Amino acid sequence: MFNHRFDEIEKQTKGIVFNIEHFHVHDGEGIRTNVFLKGCSLHCPWCCNPESIHPVPQIAQYQKLCTGCGKCVEVCPEHCCIQKEDGNVITDFSQCCACGKCASVCPAGARELFGKRMSVSEVIAEVEKDSVYFINSDGGLTLSGGEACLQPEFARELIRAAHRRYIPAALETAGAVEWERLWQAAKEADEILMDLKTTDSLQFEKIGRFSLDTVMENMCKLAEAGKNITLRCPIIPNFNDNEGHIQKVAETARRVGVNRIDFLPFHQLGKHKYAAIGKNYQMTDYPEMKDTIMEKMAECLRKEGFHVSIGG
Ligand code: SF4
Ligand code: SF4
Ligand code: SF4
């Protein structure tokens, strides 16, 4: 179908993907197929994809599903699947080399390997299955993460491969990355979904090594380059669920010339994955955002002329 050069680039350019999800409707225009790239420069405690943060593959064990059959113990080359005296099997994550052998023999689905090295051609073949939905809904591919810009060459080649198949491509980014990497990934994207986690510099410092100034500079540069940007704002209880933040979001959007804002209400859906990968979840006691409060915030900005959606 394509010339030999593109074929080779698509086969040879590889990245680490931890999920491909079909039929998303909140991550760009129309029906989307989301490709999640592994690795993130932030560590938001509310993250519903904690498996996205570490840049390389990692194993998860869902304790509730484990029957204690011991098959993983038999195959683990690092001896980090450990059967205790009471029969329970646990994982020593510090010794795991993420070979995935345990997941392939587990009969209970209690183990999962997050992250797989895939070529552009492998990913795009999966995305292309949804072409008919893209055509009928103006949808397309959305690159997400993690932070997709940490694998900028792979992201760029995925976008190019999508375009060669007449599939529009959106890029989601938190902007907490060097401009050169961001631009390499974003230059050819049709739409940018740009996260604005907080408008408070001190709050931002607590979730990553980049400053909020870097994010804002990157956002301005994308806008100056004429990119079509939607602001994505997680609304987190006791963090940024206040009127001051909402007004600063509006100020930022005005300054950058963005009209579309998505509010992403905090939820607990990713909670179970923390223990599965050996991490602590810090948000157990935080309530989920009420629909009425989200609607009130959205209405506030709609009155100021913004197009505001809730979801994601
Ligand atoms: S991924 Fe490999 S090293 Fe890690 S727990 Fe499973 S079998 Fe052991
Ligand atoms: S193979 Fe699966 S079900 Fe069996 S002990 Fe290991 S994790 Fe548990
Ligand atoms: S930027 Fe997104 S993927 Fe990264 S830690 Fe925050 S919520 Fe998770």
Give the tags.
312 residues, alpha/beta, Alpha-Beta Plaits, nine-stranded mixed β-sheet, two-stranded antiparallel ribbon, binds iron/sulfur cluster
How is the topology of this model organized?
Elements (H helix, E strand, L loop, with lengths): L3 H9 L1 E11 L7 E6 L20 E4 L9 H5 L5 E3 L5 E3 L9 H5 L5 E4 L1 E4 H9 L2 H7 L2 E5 L7 H13 L4 E5 L5 H8 L4 E5 L5 H5 L6 H13 L4 E7 L7 H14 L3 E6 L5 H6 L14 H12 L4 E4 L2
Parallel strand pairs: 2-8, 8-9, 9-10, 10-11, 11-12, 12-13
Antiparallel strand pairs: 1-2, 1-7, 3-6, 4-5
Helix pairs in contact: 4-6, 6-7
The structure holds iron/sulfur cluster (3 copies).
What report would you give on this structure?
This protein has 312 residues and is of the alpha/beta class. It folds into two domains: 4-55 and 118-310, Aldolase class I (TIM Barrel); 58-114, 2-Layer Sandwich (Alpha-Beta Plaits), CATH 3.30.70. The chain has twelve helices and 13 strands. It has helices at residues 4-12, 71-75, 101-105, 120-128, 131-137, 152-164, 179-186, 201-205, 212-224, 243-256, 271-276, 291-302; strands spanning 14-24, 32-37, 58-61, 81-83, 89-91, 111-114, 116-119, 140-144, 169-173, 191-195, 229-235, 260-265, 307-310. The strands form three sheets. A nine-stranded mixed beta sheet has the order 7-1-2-8-9-10-11-12-13. The chain has a two-stranded antiparallel sheet with strand order 3-6. It has a two-stranded antiparallel sheet with strand order 4-5. Helix 4 crosses helix 6 and helix 6 runs parallel beside helix 7 (179-186). The longest helix has 14 residues, at 243-256. It starts with a helix and ends with a strand. The model has no long low-confidence stretch (mean pLDDT 96). Bound molecules: iron/sulfur cluster (SF4) (3 copies). One iron/sulfur cluster binds next to loops.
